[in-house]
Amino acid sequence: MNFFPKFIFPHFSRHFATLSKLPNNFTKIPSKYRPQAIRDAQQALTDYLHSTRYIPFIYAEHIAKNSFFSLSSLISGINFSTTSFNRNVLRFLRYHPINEYEFFFESIGIDYEEVGGLLPSKKFFFSEDETVLEAACALSGFGFPWNKLGKLYKEEILIFKASSKELKARLVKIKECGFSNISVIGICLAFPYVLRGGGVNELGGEIVALLNDLKRVFLDFDLGNHVEDNVDAWYEICRKIRVFYDLGCEKGKIGELIGRKKDLFLQYPEEVLVSKIEYFSRFLVPKEDIGMLILRNPEILDSDLETPMISVMGMLKHFGLSVKKRDSIAKEYPYVLGRNKMTNLPNVMRALNLHEWLFNRIKNGNHRLLANYTLNDDEDLDKGFRDSFDKIQFSRTPVHTMEKLIFLHRVGFGENSLTMKVLDHVHGTGSELQERFDSLLGLGFEFSKLCRIVHMTPKVLNQRPKTVEQKVNFLRHEMGVSLDYLDIFPAFLCFNLEKRIKPRYRFHKWLTENGLCTRNYSIASIVATGEKSFIARLGRIHPDALNKWFENFSYKESDNSSQD
User: DSSP string spanning 218-262?
Assistant: First the structure.
């Protein structure tokens, strides 16, 4: 592939992997001529924008060389010729003006599929409103990479409504803090709002607080001298710093701490930082606490929190939970006990309703306990689980069954025989079960209580989310009962809403309102009683109750099954 021009190859390696996005006519150009077609079209577009539309040559070239999909769409309607394609494109442009904003937005790094939503409704040419282009030219003139300006536009569109004079003044103001051009660019790409400013010659209070932190970090603690002198390196280091502000750490307050822990930002990739934040976020604790935990204890990023196996009871003992509380846990949550993976620890603790307790232990000086925890070879092995697990390998659907088991472990169920009993009664793929579980959480179920419900009534997870939502809404709004009632009667969610729950409840309500039934039957008694016993009960309540039931309330189709 040495025949690819240097500026063409990145486009082809990135874009031809997704040919489905390209216009059909363009893909008809023989593959060996596509680099030439793009090169000729880029040159023609550059000449057009510069000579006809009076855009400075360097910016016209930036637009032409960084708008691959827009350009491909343009030339798809032009017959290709190996000898005259450049002239053909120029001739086409003279009579078919392009939407300059479309090419511009793609060229500054905005995904082509998003460009359509950003185009001005009644503007086609930069001459109709030069503000956006002038802002981009001012930023590029300072040193911003043209194809990264889209990051600024998407996050702070007001930057592109400022005059070039205002932008230059803001950039100078930031630079006066002691930063170089390259460091200013890295800071602005990671924190676009610093260019929003408070006016031509002033910066807002939030921006000043941030810049004070960054001065402390890069200048006072000398982190700047450890960063390579290029935009990408500065942007990367600033992105890592931004992670902590996005977690809620206060601007102007953590500069010294970041400076003292600068190795965190030099040694660890952003992906490692983000993965650990995602891990601790699953404890459902304040995000700022997670940020401060990692800032104060960066060595936690070295810990393997994914692959090690743990004993649930062993981990509780390791972190100092008392014998009395561990005994209580064993009685109340037996389905959570046994072994599990470290990656599932946050949900294991949520299933035990101990997630805040454990995170606080970690946060308050015990973070090393995560790293030095070890599991003995024969610790907490459950023979019943192991026997059932071995049978899975020889079943008709071992992969499908394992996906379901992995789901149960992921939400906090341990390696024990109770988990295997639940496994026998839940149906669907692992992803379907996760979707149903998440939908129940979205309806307001507490994580710990939902795990208990699944343990008691696994078939709750065998229904479509919409079906369960309708039952929950009926329970809450028409029956006037909170979700807490399902702690007592989780099987409510397994009965048919239209055939069983609605008609029976409404009939009992009618009986009570009309003084025909003085006994206060529970919801469980109303819904769960078998059909024959229910009919017999109606006959005892009132002689005319049966006729009323069959004429006005009962579901008309045969009700052979009470379950969905």
Answer: IIIS-GGGGS-SSHHHHHHHHHHHHHHHHTTPPTTTSHHHHHHTH
Which tokens is 500 given?
Answer: 């069983």
* 99 in Cβ contact with 119 (< 8 Å): yes
The token pair that represents 502 in the structure block: 């609605």
Residue 202: DSSP 8-state:
-
SS3 for 499-545 is HHHHHHHHHHHHHHHCCCCCCCCCHHHHHHCCHHHHHHHHHHHCCCH
Give the confidence band of 27 by pLDDT, cuts at 50, 70, 90: low
| DSSP alpha helix (H) spans, 28-180 | 34-47, 57-65, 68-75, 85-95, 100-107, 112-115, 131-142, 149-155, 164-175
| 208 strand-pairing partners | none
Please answer whether residues 387 and 381 qualify as being in contact, where contact means their C-beta atoms are separated by less than 8 angstroms: no
Neighbouring C-beta atoms of residue 156, cutoff 10 Å: 18
pLDDT by residue (tens digit) across 531-557?
A: 899 888 888 887 777 878 887 777 665
CB 184 within 8 A of CB 192: no
Burial (CB < 10 A; 0-12, 13-18, 19+), residue 53, is: middle
Q: What is the pLDDT of residue 557?
A: 59
pLDDT by residue (tens digit) across 487-539? Answer: 999 999 999 999 999 999 998 888 888 888 768 889 999 999 998 998 888 88
**Distance separating alpha carbons of residues 333 and 348, to the nearest angstrom:** 11
Across-strand partners of 309?
341
Residues 6+ apart with CB under 8 A from 332: none
In whole angstroms, give the CA distance from residue 552 to residue 208. 71
* CA separation for the pair 406, 403 (Å, rounded): 5
Coil, helix or strand at residue 104: helix
Compute CA distances 73 → 24, 76, 125, 202, 458, whole Å. Answer: 9, 5, 18, 44, 53
Distance, CA of 348 to CA of 354 (rounded, Å): 9
45-to-42, 80, 499 alpha-carbon distances in Å: 5, 15, 68
Q: Pairing state of beta strands 309-311 and 339-341?
A: antiparallel
Q: Taking the model in full, what pTM does it have?
A: 0.85
Confidence check: pLDDT of 8 > 60: no
Picking from 381, 315, 386, 397, the residue whose alpha carbon sits closest to that of residue 354 is 315
Closest alpha carbon to 257 in 208, 297, 303, 302: 297
| Alpha-carbon span 489 to 516, nearest angstrom | 26
